[in-house]
Specification:
With 395 residues, the protein is α/β, with parallel strands linked by helices. It has 3 domains: 1-77 and 267-297, NAD(P)-binding Rossmann-like Domain (Rossmann fold), CATH 3.40.50; 84-96 and 130-259, 3-Layer(aba) Sandwich (Rossmann fold), CATH 3.40.50; 300-378, 2-Layer Sandwich (Alpha-Beta Plaits), CATH 3.30.70. The chain contains 12 helices and 16 strands. The strands form 3 sheets. It has a 7-stranded parallel beta sheet, sandwiched between helices. Strands 2-1-3-4-5 form a 5-stranded parallel beta sheet. A 4-stranded antiparallel beta sheet has the order 14-15-13-16, with helices on both faces. The longest helix is centred in the C-terminal third of the chain and has 21 residues, at 268-288. It is elongated. The two termini are 47 Å apart. The protein binds nicotinamide-adenine-dinucleotide and (2R)-2-hydroxypentanedioic acid. The site of (2R)-2-hydroxypentanedioic acid has 7 residues, from loops.
Length: 395
């Protein structure tokens, strides 16, 4: 039985399905698993008992991934699940800054009388907009979200520039360096994760390179844009505005800043999809040791035919697999199937066996003494009840 701590709200429908993995929601300080959305996972929960953190969503800046890796805890997420939602939010904010439709509709509500159409038309000049077609958009970060935004902007007839660390080979945009992108774009959209590398990437110096009258949209994370720098640049009237999904007190009352309450991915479709994938990823990890999307574990999947599976996670400072194999031999364990995969210096191994459980447990005790080993688990092949055949009654 696994105790699962649930941070943030998840639907009962998904939480009740955890029981398929013998996992049950419990408010404990020492869980085996954590389900979370964008709230911070306290470091105190990352104990050696913890096996997995499953994030419904993409950004993992609220999870101490380094500490998790040290404890052999898999940090799973659901990349791509909210990319369409964020893309649609970005496209609608782009339209909202060039077309004052909401303001125009509000004005109409102030009118009265039979000739309301004439009165309204007389004020049309107050609401002249601009078009996106033909303008330059720069997309910073070409992952699931960035690529979708770039593609839609291209379909709207915009000229699309993109910034990524590697050539993405996309034919609907021109990849340029960040400084060039900032100089050329009328609209710049940030679709990056928050990392040590991206924190403050949009520094005052970089913001000053932006085109006169350009807009910046931040749907990545707040600290990617330097707040002091942004306030200074906005004061000088070089930027037309800053649209951010991450409210900051320093921007309150600034009429050039529009802040949303972190709702880029906040659609019913994205939330339901994220919850389902995060719950399933957690269940599959607990039952089978399977890893699909993780920021610190390599992906791993193997059919579970034999009665037992040993999963091993280690940070490789030297090749320890021969030592592990030697222990398996010493305890006369016959490996049926095995797979190994790596992510950077982290290695994850699945080994399926058909031996006596106590024999495997003794081998595990010895494997746990090897330096670099972060986590070893012994899984039993799940026994699914056979479905009863339903006899067809033919009248
Ligand atoms: N506003 C919201 O509600 C919302 C919703 C989803 C995601 N996000 C944010 O958007 C981020 C991106 O989401 P995604 O689904 O596109 O993730 P993703 O992992 O598919 O893409 C991230 C991209 O950023 C690139 N990248 C990372 N560091 C970089 C750097 N220093 N320079 C250039 N490129 C770099 C990666 O290579 C990757 O291509 C998330 O991490 C999250 O912070 C926000
Ligand atoms: O979980 C959320 O509510 C927002 C998710 C979003 O910021 C993400 O990184 O996927």
């Amino acid at each position: 039985m696994y105790d699962i701590k649930v941070i943030d709200s998840f639907t009962n429908k998904q939480l009740s399905r955890l029981k398929l993995a013998k996992a049950y929601v419990k408010d404990t300080d020492e869980p085996y698993g954590i389900m979370v959305r964008s709230s911070t996972v306290p470091d105190s929960l990352i104990t050696d008992k913890l096996l997995v953190i499953s994030r419904s969503g993409v950004g993992v800046n609220t999870i101490n991934v380094e500490a998790s890796t040290e404890q052999g805890v898999a940090v799973l997420n659901t990349p791509g699940v909210n990319a369409n939602a964020v893309k649609e939010a970005v496209i609608s904010t782009l339209f909202s800054v060039v077309r004052p439709l909401t303001k125009a509709a509000e004005m109409v509500q102030t009118l009265s009388g039979e000739d309301i159409l004439l009165q309204a038309e007389a004020r049309r000049e107050e609401f002249i907009g601009r078009e996106l077609q033909g303008k330059v958009i720069g997309v910073v970060g070409l992952g699931a979200i960035g690529v979708q935004i770039a593609r839609s902007a291209y379909d709207l007839g915009m000229e699309v520039l993109g910034y990524a660390r590697r050539d993405q080979g996309l034919d609907f945009l021109e990849q340029v360096d960040l400084d060039e992108l900032l100089r050329q774009s009328h609209f710049v959209v940030i679709a990056l994760p928050l990392t040590e590398e991206t924190r403050g990437l949009l520094s005052e110096e970089r913001l000053r390179q932006m085109k006169q009258g350009a807009y910046l949209f931040n749907f990545g994370r707040g600290p990617i844009v330097d707040t002091t720098g942004m306030l200074a640049v906005l004061k000088e009237d070089s930027l037309a505005g800053y649209y951010t999904d991450f409210p900051e007190e320093a921007y309150l009352g600034n009429d050039k800043v529009i802040m949303l309450p972190h709702i880029g991915g906040n659609t019913q479709e994205a939330l339901e999809g994220g919850e389902r994938l995060a719950r399933k990823a957690l269940s599959d990890f607990l039952i089978y040791g399977t890893v699909r999307d993780s920021v610190n574990f390599p992906s791993a999947r193997q059919l579970f035919h034999l009665p037992y599976r040993v999963t091993l996670f280690y940070k490789e400072t030297m090749d320890i697999l021969p030592d592990i194999m030697q222990i398996f031999n010493q305890f006369d364990l016959r490996i049926g199937e095995m797979m190994t995969n790596r992510k950077g210096e982290c290695v994850y191994v699945l080994i399926d066996l058909d031996n006596d459980q106590s024999q495997i447990e003794r081998a595990i005790e010895k494997i746990e003494t090897i330096n670099d080993i972060k986590k070893v688990r012994l899984l039993k092949r799940p026994q699914y009840k056979k479905r009863r055949k339903v006899k067809k009654i033919i009248k």
